[in-house]
Automatic annotation (TrEMBL):
It holds the Pfam family IBN_N. GO terms for molecular function: nuclear export signal receptor activity; small GTPase binding. Keywords: Nucleus, Transport. GO terms for cellular component: cytosol; nuclear envelope. Residues 26-93 form the Importin N-terminal domain. It is found in: Nucleus. This is Importin N-terminal domain-containing protein. Residues 993-1026 have a biased composition (Acidic residues). SUPFAM superfamilies: ARM repeat. Residues 992-1026 are annotated as: Disordered. It comes from Musa troglodytarum. Its main location: nucleus.
Length: 1118
């Protein structure tokens, strides 16, 4: 081992060199040394004892990658026993920077050896001794072991246990390893935890940060232990542990007066609240007696929500603002979780009024931080306060958990909570007199009871929302024209609006009149009374969107008039009104998605189109999204106007396309996405109308749209289109929006039916650029890839309609490989080849495309090289993917093997050359696999007529090949292929007969099935309530199903393959000829069963003398 260390040090130092040659040489040298058995131990020695920190970090990083790549190999290749023990010892003494990297190495081994396999029994006892003898535990600075490092190791061991190890098992028991850790380490640590908390709260010195770091790690260890499971040893120590957390949380001050030294304390507080949430939601029976203390603690923190908004906090505490916000947010969440249980409701309900006054509402009101974010970062303001589906969530996850969001959620939980009559007196004592909403009367529980007293034996319930929340909010008056944005009345009403936005569940339980009155009296007047306070208008927009599922259709005219007014609102007195316009667009989208349609579609669309034409780039982005949603929602009503809309959208997109082909800006991408959505909706609605009415107007509209799209794509890809015939490919369009541009190109291809249309729309030029772009595609995502596959199908269909053009074979200069010409079909085939190797559904689609591409174009003699190259690529990809899956039969076997079959029928020599490159005899692997898939016992096997026919033809050729050129150990494969060939041929005859029978009975009346469906629907009304056992069972089954998706069984459907000239082959004659020529060899074994022989005799009576001899030779035949 010592002999490797100097060389490893030299090579690692070379990896830090800026010279590429030295870096490449060092990488190759390390790869060479990695074959030695002592290599990981030598790396570990360098990581802990290297001359410089840079060298130590480089060794630790290389060790992490090396161990990750070797985890699935034979454990002895790493000398596992010795290595893992030395790694654990190194962790206990490593410096912090190196420790952070080595912990990742340790985690890989712990998950495999300790958590999953439980083959490291000495780990916990050894770690227990180390912790007991570490420096801070025995209070000796010169101790051998570091407490911080030892607890970091413990945290790494416990981290995997935060999730259920086997989610498929209902009521999974606590793992034995976790029980041991809890009993031997966590329980004894409680005394240390209590002592360290006392010291931290009593005085401040240089040791405080070390102690707080230890406290934080212990909190993390406890959280990982109880997040899913509850070890039996932890139950008795929970009260003591939680009381220490209460003391830490009570010591917090979030008024902005803290400094950087309080960061660890804040992290401890945050972790403590997360622990409370886990205990309350997962293990309530263990903490029932602690609930009142938890509520008091969370309430004290929640009341500080106003403090985080002070000017001092905004200006001075930017680095702590996020975690302070998160702490208050968690405090609200803890109260919400407690409130959802019966005992918790009884504890929290007496505090409802105080919660509203002192915690929830102060977190909702407008504050200086809001106005600063509005002015300096409008997108951030919208993301935090007016979230919608327009923009994808980005940025730090912690930023999304604001105190305001959690307060709104808690308010919603309070509003929908029900109370029984026995608690009514206590709750009414918190209110003074009877309160009313400005509009609908808010009935007390007594009046509600008189109205709904239908069952005297049942206790009556009422909602806290109508008793307390709505009356509380109604006491804040609505601002009017004279009120400035900085006034208290505006700030408070902002909080009222935020509160309304969280009451959708409560309002959904009320009648439509209640919601109508609330929105008419407290929301919609803001659009006319406070147009100069954009903060309120933007929030009103958001509320309307949040209440989309509660709004009655009768007030749609007023709602849409208000939102359109906001959508077109200009900037006011130097205040940017972008959030107003963006939130209005988001609200309209929410309304449309909830089928809340406008009374006048055209006026809404016209406003949106005008805004797109006149708006800025960032606003056009969300307007494009809005337009696409509107067209999708109203496609049947506005389909006749879509060509005009498309023309306007195309004009706006062209204005934003940059002259230099850099990545397109977001506005262009959103524009293409809107066009794709509009196109799909238009085709879905208008095509049906054209078929129903034989409307020539549809064809005319399609021609206009196709020309518009062709012009747009030509301009978007102008640089490449113009340089197709030139050698200069230094500039090219970016691979942006390939899914959406493929949708547009697909419509162009679908429209073209004549030669002049192909030339007029410049289809060969557009396809040339498009095929070049997709040939270099790497971002495989199902929703994006689907449009590309659909466009390939449309290109194939066009080639069939206009076969004489053979445009798929047009050669262009490749953008991917400058100076090399390639045809359109080569670019498309490169994409399909990668698709064969991608995720399961892409593999299915790509394999289907292979059969289309192989048989559509007419390859000339000069293009035979292209044909052979494509076939070799398809075969190589399909065989590689099949070989990866061959040890686990699944649904992907069929499409992969049928691709190889199609290739083999066309170019058997090329396919055999590819298969012969495999050291395990690729031909035998494929032949055995196809025989297995074609067998009637394989499921899901071949089933459509084209699939069976392709398999039969290929198996016949495989049998011919194995008879003519016998291979070592090939006799078994030959017999399997022969049996599967005969079974598949008989299967083909059955399918042909079945399809013939079905074609003769297409006019059968199906009224009976309709009645049966109706009966089934009626029987679904009596669904039983799901019990907890049913819930756990359902989720266990769901976990089991999710684990099977990776096998490729998600698309085990029937494929109707395009076989081209192969479809004309007379299968029966080929098999008959095979039997006649090679019956002596084929029938020499005992592969054919007696039943199969009889079926073959029925299918081939001409072979009766040959097969009878074989049948009589079988044992047991009389």
């Amino acid at each position: 081992m010592d002999t490797l260390i100097p060389e490893i040090c030299r090579l690692l130092n070379d990896t830090l060199s800026p010279e590429k040659a030295a870096l490449a040489s060092a990488t190759d040298g390390l790869d060479r040394l990695s074959r030695f058995p002592h290599f990981p131990l030598s790396l570990l020695a360098v990581a802990t004892g290297g001359d410089s920190q840079g060298l130590r970090l480089a060794a630790a990083a290389y060790l992490k990658n090396f161990v990750r790549s070797c985890m699935d190999d034979d454990p002895q290749s790493l000398e596992l026993q010795r290595f893992r023990n030395q790694l654990a010892q190194a962790l206990l003494q490593a410096e912090p920077a190196v420790l952070k990297v080595l912990v990742e190495v340790f985690r890989l081994i712990v998950v495999k050896n300790f958590v999953k396999e439980n083959t490291w029994p000495e780990l916990v006892p050894d770690l227990t001794l180390v912790i007991q003898r570490s420096n801070l535990i025995i209070q000796n600075k010169n101790a051998q072991w570091s407490t911080l490092n030892a607890l970091t190791v413990l945290q790494t061991i416990l981290r995997p246990f935060q999730y259920f190890l086997n989610p498929k098992v209902r009521n999974e028991s606590v793992p034995v390893q976790l029980e041991i850790i809890a009993k031997d380490i966590l329980v004894p640590l409680q005394a240390t935890f209590h002592d360290f908390v006392n010291k931290t709260l009593s005085f401040q010195d240089q040791e405080q940060s070390k102690l707080e770091e230890i406290i934080l790690i212990i909190c993390k260890c406890m959280y990982f232990s109880v997040r899913s499971y509850m070890p039996s040893a932890l139950g008795p120590i929970l009260p003591s542990f939680c009381h220490d957390l209460f003391r830490i949380l009570d010591s917090l001050s979030l008024d902005g007066a803290s400094d950087d030294g309080s960061l660890l304390r804040l992290k401890i507080a945050k972790r403590g609240l997360v622990i409370f949430s886990a205990l309350v939601t997962r293990h309530r029976k263990h903490v029932d007696r602690l609930i009142p203390s938890v509520v008091d603690c969370a309430f004290k923190i929640a009341k500080q929500s106003g403090n985080t908004c002070s000017s001092k906090t905004v200006k001075v505490m930017q680095n702590l603002d996020c975690i302070s916000e998160r702490i208050i947010s968690l405090a609200f969440d803890v109260i919400s979780h407690i409130l959802e249980s019966g005992p918790g409701w009884r504890v929290v309900s007496p505090h409802f009024s105080s919660l509203l006054d002192n915690a929830i509402f102060p977190a909702l009101v407008l504050n200086q931080k809001d106005t600063l974010e509005w002015d300096e970062d409008a997108e951030e303001y919208i993301r935090k306060n007016l979230p919608s589906d327009i923009d994808e969530i980005s940025g730090w996850a912690e930023d999304l958990f604001t105190a305001r969001k959690s307060a709104i959620n808690l308010l919603g939980v309070i509003a929908t909570s029900k109370f029984e009559y026995v608690y009514l007196v206590n709750l009414l004592s918190q209110l003074e007199g009877t309160v009313y909403l400005q509009g609908p009367r808010i009935a007390t529980a007594t009046t509600k009871r008189k109205k709904a007293d239908k069952s005297k034996g049942k206790q009556q319930e009422s909602s806290i929302g109508e008793l307390l929340v709505i009356p509380f909010l109604s006491k804040f008056p609505m601002p009017y024209h004279g009120d400035k944005a900085s006034s208290k009345i505006v700030h408070n009403y902002y909080g009222v609006l935020m509160a309304y936005g969280g009451l959708q569940d409560f309002l959904r339980e009320r009648n439509s009149e209640y919601t109508t009155t609330l929105v008419r009296n407290r929301v919609l007047p803001l659009y006319s009374s406070c147009p100069f306070v954009p903060y309120l208008v933007a929030t009103a927009n958001w509320i309307v969107g949040e209440l989309a599922s509660c709004l009655p259709q009768a007030m749609s005219s007023d709602v849409y008039d208000s939102l359109i007014k906001a959508l077109t609102m200009p900037d006011i007195n130097g205040i940017n009104c972008y959030p107003v316009r963006a939130s209005a667009a988001g609200a309209i989208i929410r309304l449309l998605e909830n089928e809340y349609v406008p009374p006048d579609w055209l006026s809404v669309l016209q406003v949106v189109v005008n805004q797109i034409a006149n708006g800025e780039k960032n606003e056009s982005s969300f307007l494009f999204h809005l337009l696409g949603t509107a067209v999708e929602a109203g496609q049947d009503i506005i389909s006749a106007h879509i060509p005009m809309l498309i023309s306007s959208v195309v004009g706006a997109i062209v204005n934003h396309i940059p002259p230099i082909p850099d990545p397109w800006p977001q506005v262009v991408e959103r524009g293409f996405a809107a066009l794709a959505t509009i196109t799909k909706s238009w085709e879905a609605s208008s095509a049906g109308e054209a078929l129903e009415h034989d409307d020539r107007k549809w064809e005319s509209s399609q021609a206009v749209v196709a020309r518009t799209f062709a012009t747009l794509l030509y301009q978007a890809w102008a640089v490449s289109v113009q340089s197709i015939d030139s050698a200069d490919r230094s500039t090219s369009p970016p691979p942006s929006c390939l899914d959406d541009t493929s949708t547009l190109l697909g419509l162009i291809l679908k429209f073209a039916t004549k030669m002049n249309e192909i030339e007029e729309l410049k289809i060969p030029e557009l396809l040339a650029v498009w095929s070049d772009l997709i040939s270099d595609w790497h971002g495989w995502e199902e929703m994006e890839d689907l449009a590309v596959f659909d466009c390939i199908q449309e290109a194939v269909n066009l080639q069939r309609r206009c076969d004489s053009t053979n445009f798929l074979l047009k050669r262009i200069s490749s953008r991917v490989s400058p100076g090399v010409d390639q045809s359109i079909i080569e670019g498309v085939s490169a994409f399909v080849t990668k698709g064969i190797m991608a995720y399961p559904s892409a593999t299915w689609r790509a394999c289907s495309c292979v059969h289309e591409l192989l048989h559509v174009p007419s390859f000339s003699f000069q293009m035979q090289g292209v044909k052979q190259s494509i076939i070799a690529s398809f075969t190589r990809a399909a065989f590689s993917h099949f070989k990866d899956l061959r040890n686990k039969p699944n649904g992907l076997w069929k499409p992969l093997l049928l691709v190889i079959s199609s290739c083999y029928i066309l170019c058997p020599e090329i396919v055999e050359q590819v298969l012969d490159q495999d050291e395990d005899n690729g031909f035998m692997i494929v032949a055995c696999g196809l025989a297995h898939v074609s067998s009637r016992s394989f499921g899901p096997g071949i089933s459509s007529m084209s699939e069976i026919k392709l398999a039969v033809i290929t198996l016949e050729k495989f049998v011919e090949r194995l008879v003519a050129f016998p291979l070592e150990d090939g006799n078994k494969v030959l017999q399997d292929c022969l049996v599967s060939l005969m079974e598949a041929f008989l299967h083909l005859k059955e399918v042909e007969e079945k399809e013939a029978e079905e074609s003769d009975s297409e006019d059968i009346d199906d009224e009976y099935s309709d009645e049966e469906i109706s009966d089934n629907e009626d029987s679904e009304d009596d669904d039983l309530e799901e019990t907890q056992e049913d819930f756990l069972d359902r989720y266990a089954k769901a976990a089991d199903e999710l684990s099977e998706i990776v096998g490729g069984d998600i698309e085990d459907g029937v494929q109707d393959l395009q076989l081209g000239p192969v479809d004309e082959i007379d299968v029966r004659e080929q098999i008959l000829s095979l039997i006649r020529r090679h019956h002596q060899v084929l029938l020499k074994g005992q592969a054919l069963s007696s039943g199969l022989i009889q079926q073959i005799l029925d299918a081939f009576p001409e072979c009766t003398p040959l097969l009878q001899v074989h049948r009589q030779s079988q044992p047991g035949h009389s």
